[in-house]
């Protein structure tokens, strides 16, 4: 299950002594640092300057001035799309550096991180293409003969707050469509993943220096929770788009509600995979282990509840137990590994506490359950399959954010749907069946934003988002671009009036 090639290690990462405000690296008004700790070596590998409340105000002021001037919003969609394509090209040129940072920030193996970087550039290009085809004006004829023009206008100054578990990819989700729409953006990175946003800032700095992006349009900051909240509450910010935990999303929504600021939220998940009795076990084994343990389970879309009937319980439990225990885990710099360490010591402890709580509640660990044998260094938790889980247990209701899968038994199809929907979350899900129409019909009954039939499809160029407490709004596709527009109706009189 594990490999421990200690000869493979991370390339060096550069410290960042300044903050990025309005398109330029500049001195901070404070002297605090954020450390990047390698989850494999458990050592600090870089330091990045933390922003102050004054730095946040400077960034908002720059964004507000640039947006109100129309210097970026006044450009055509085609002009902005060309710049977004250029951002994709320059991120591609930095793929090796970003791949390294994906390993250091999230703990994912190098091959997984490389795939993420490739996807990120593709997402920028997909947004650029959507922008070229997006209609920002539609004329409608009224009954009185007049024309009403329906305009799509940028939402304004956007605070884009991203998580630690996929920093560069989430930048593509948020900053690319915001810029395409004509917004000015303050990107706020997560303290646990501080370096990838700085590389993105380098790209923006180049484009500002070349005159491709005006000054003031983009700032990139790192800050703790207290300072970050001043960004959410700043009246100069029109729109907050946030990806992270549901708890943090509730806090942001509450703060934004005080001034009725626009909010887009992509939050947590506790997604269910329903294995129907006619399912081909090969289809299940081809996708479910990856679907549940991607990024060592540090993914909001992870399929962490597996629902199986009593009839097939023993068969499915044995097969999944073997599959999860066989996933290669170890040194993230070894290309053969699929799973690496969790992102930090505190997170490792949190995941272990969830496993222990499930055992106390009467569940049984079939495989995994703690640190893998032979891996005494790094923040590891082995892929863990827990049987005998009831849907009212904490392990079945709360987002663990680790490679921990709950096996839950259902009585019939209606019971399976009820169990899948018995959650505050509604982000993702899956149905396994040999009858595709049956799978489609069942998918429609599951209250979640995405459902895959016989697989775990990940295509972020399509709309993605959640029901219930998994979020508000959509990312990806034309729907994700539309999030950054307001709708205005202009009534024009009939001819001659």
Describe this structure as you would to a colleague.
- The structure is a single chain.
- The protein has two domains: 6-267 and 471-488, Aldehyde Dehydrogenase, Chain A, domain 1; 271-460, 3-Layer(aba) Sandwich (Aldehyde Dehydrogenase, Chain A, domain 2).
- The strands form six sheets. It has a seven-stranded mixed beta sheet with strand order 16-17-18-14-13-19-20, sandwiched between helices.
- Helix 3 packs across helix 4.
- It has helices at 53-69, 77-93, 95-106, 110-133, 167-181, 195-209, 225-233, 246-257, 281-293, 313-325, 345-360, 394-397, 413-421, 436-445, 477-482, and strands at 2-3, 19-21, 24-26, 33-37, 44-49, 137-141, 147-154, 157-161, 184-189, 218-222, 239-243, 262-266, 271-275, 303-309, 329-330, 364-367, 384-387, 404-410, 429-432, 452-453, 471-472, 485-492.
- The model is unreliable at 2-7 (pLDDT under 50).
- Helix content is 39%, strand content 21%.
- It has 497 residues and is of the alpha/beta class.
- The protein contains 15 helices and 22 strands.
